[in-house]
Every structure is written in C-alpha cells, then in structure tokens.
C-alpha cells in the first residue's frame, strides 16, 4: 500500500529545503552587496544569481538537518529536492560539451536559478493534492521543476545553437602574413581558409584605430578595402580550401606621417565580413578577425 507523502514528513522536509534555498538567495544578495562590493542592487542580485548553487546547497543541508532533528526519513524528500537540478545540470553539461563558450556556460547556469520558481509551483501543486498517493505527490513536486527548468535552458540554448555564430564558428580561418604602406595605401597579404562548404561573399571593413589620426565629417571611420584574390581566384561555391588574397585601404593610413611610429599606434584587428551568397539581402552572417601586423615603411 502506498504511503501518503504530503501528510507525512515528506512535505515538511521539502518545505524546509525550499525555505533554506530562498533564505540562502537573500543572503547571497546581501553578500553581493557587501562582500562583492556591488555598486547597485541589480548587480548584487546578478552576483547572487550566478552563485545560486550555494543557496541550493544550503537548502539541502537544512533539509538533512531537519530530518535529523525531527527523526524523519529524508531519502525520498532529498531525492525530490536534488533530482530536477541534477537533470538540468546534466543537460547544461551536454550543451557546454557541444559548445564550450564561457558566456554560454555563464548564461546556462545563471538562468538555472529560475528553477526555484518551478520548485515552489510544484510544491503548491503537491499540497493541493493532499491525500494523493506517494508516487503522485513525488511527481507533482518534481515534474514542474524538471519541465520548467528544461524550458528555461531551452530558451537559452536554442537561440545559441541556431545562431550563425554557432553554425559558422569553425567554418573559417584567417591569417595575415604581411602589411605594408606605400604611396599612402596600406596593403595586407592574407590567407582565407574555408572549412564549411557554402556560397559566400566577403568584404573587408577597416576602422581607424589609435589617436594619431584626425577624422572629419567627410572621412568616415570605416572603409571597405579592395580585395584582390590570388591566382586560384575567389572562393568557389561549395568548395572548401585555402584562398590567398590581398586587401588595399586608402583612408586613415598609419605611418603616412613622420610623427607616427610603431610605438604609438595601436594594433588593429582586421575583419572579413562573410555574407550568404544565396540570399538577396546579403547581410553579414559572420565575421572573421585576425591581428594586422604593424606595417613599417
């Protein structure tokens, strides 16, 4: 015969764990304000959210302590408390193994703090069904936390995994071997590597860097360089490989004035904008960057 968990110590122990989680969250906000020296409440709250697991662990400790003091069996309640988070950590770990980006990892584990809301909803749903069989009470508690947590992780992971940044993250490589200045023109010799077949178009924007050059309204900070491909020609549709190219810029050229030296000009990152040649709008779908060697006359 099944036990009726909500009328036993199951609900009491879970309530203790959840209250401990909530209290731990408020303590973390205070710690973020005082110990982490956050300048605003919002920053302190974000710090607390990024350390949500501390409050979660505190709730588990309180649950076990309550079981010892009240001499209630804690195995089922502890399993119900830990299981949804364990599942979500597993899913987040798989996502991070696929895409080990620090920002993505921070977002996944940061938003997991919201699962507390679904724990509370599951607890209320369980209490509304007081008198239900033990298995039903267990499921009423853990299912909202599991389902809600998976939805939260999905809202973070799906946009990342469907973004161009993820799709083309290993599709290209760019190296710049030489940069020279002659007759007021800067020339960069580079090699583009295409690893993912596709129909691509490329452009080479360059921003003015450093404080040695003055801009006017008629001279924008951005210039698109002229790309000249090597003997193999421009990249062919659906053909991966390496493609030598040369880029020429005429505006905001460093070292064109005697006062400019390699010691007082910042190094630039040169980017190639990648466009999908199959789309009419031809918006940039990816950027490839490489440091531009400081040219010398």
How would you portray this structure in words?
The protein is α+β, with helices and mostly antiparallel strands. It has two domains: 5-162, no CATH class; 171-291, Immunoglobulin-like (Sandwich). It is 45% helix and 21% strand. The protein contains eight helices and seven strands; from the N terminus they run ααααααααβββββββ. It has a seven-stranded antiparallel beta sheet, with no helix packed on it. Strand 1 and strand 2 form a beta hairpin. Helix 1 (9-34) crosses helix 2 (41-50), helix 4 (75-98) runs parallel beside helix 7 and helix 6 (115-128) packs antiparallel against helix 7 (134-161). The longest helix is centred in the middle third of the chain and has 28 residues, at 134-161.
List keywords for this structure.
297 residues, alpha+beta, Immunoglobulin-like, 7-stranded antiparallel beta sheet, 45% helix, elongated
Secondary structure layout plus pairing:
Blueprint: H1 9-34, H2 41-50, H3 52-70, H4 75-98, H5 102-111, H6 115-128, H7 134-161, H8 164-167, E1 172-182, E2 185-194, E3 200-207, E4 222-229, E5 241-249, E6 269-276, E7 284-291
Antiparallel strand pairs: 1-2, 2-5, 3-4, 3-6, 4-5, 6-7
Identify the overall geometry.
elongated
- Main sheet? 7 strands, antiparallel
Q: How far apart are the first and last residues' alpha carbons, in Å?
A: 89 Å
Task: Give the C-alpha Rg.
Answer: 29 Å
Cross-sheet strand order for the largest sheet: 1-2-5-4-3-6-7
Percent helix = 40-55%
As residue ranges, the low-confidence spans are 1-7, 215-219, 256-265
Tally of alpha and pi helices? 8
Indicate the structural class: alpha+beta
Number of strands: 7
Estimate the strand proportion. Answer: 15-25%
String of helices and strands: HHHHHHHHEEEEEEE
């Amino acid at each position: 015969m099944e036990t009726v968990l909500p009328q036993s110590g199951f609900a009491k122990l879970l309530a203790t764990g959840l209250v401990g989680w909530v209290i731990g969250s408020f303590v973390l906000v205070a710690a973020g304000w005082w110990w982490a020296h956050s300048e605003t409440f919002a920053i302190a709250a974000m710090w607390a959210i990024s350390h949500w697991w501390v409050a979660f662990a505190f709730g588990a400790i309180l649950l076990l302590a309550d079981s010892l003091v009240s001499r209630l069996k804690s195995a089922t309640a502890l399993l119900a408390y830990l299981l949804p988070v364990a599942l979500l950590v597993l899913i987040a770990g798989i996502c991070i193994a696929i895409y080990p980006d620090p920002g993505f990892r921070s977002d996944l584990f940061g938003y997991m703090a919201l699962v507390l809301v679904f724990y509370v909803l599951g607890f209320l749903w369980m209490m509304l069904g007081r008198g239900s069989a033990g298995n039903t009470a267990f499921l009423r508690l853990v299912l909202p936390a599991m389902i809600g947590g998976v939805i939260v992780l999905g809202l973070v992971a799906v946009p990342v995994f469907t973004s161009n940044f993820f799709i083309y993250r290993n599709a290209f490589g760019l190296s710049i071997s030489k940069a020279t200045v002659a007759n007021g023109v800067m020339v960069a010799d580079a090699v583009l590597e295409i690893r993912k077949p596709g129909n691509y178009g490329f452009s080479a924007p360059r921003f003015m860097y450093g404080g040695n050059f003055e801009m006017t309204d008629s001279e924008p900070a951005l210039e698109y360089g002229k790309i000249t491909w090597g003997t193999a020609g421009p990249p062919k549709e659906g053909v991966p490989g390496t493609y030598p190219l040369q880029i020429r810029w005429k505006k905001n050229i460093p070292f064109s004035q005697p006062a400019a030296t390699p010691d007082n000009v910042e190094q630039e990152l040169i980017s190639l904008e990648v466009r999908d040649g199959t789309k009419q709008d031809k918006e940039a779908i990816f950027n490839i960057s490489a440091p531009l060697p400081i040219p010398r006359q």
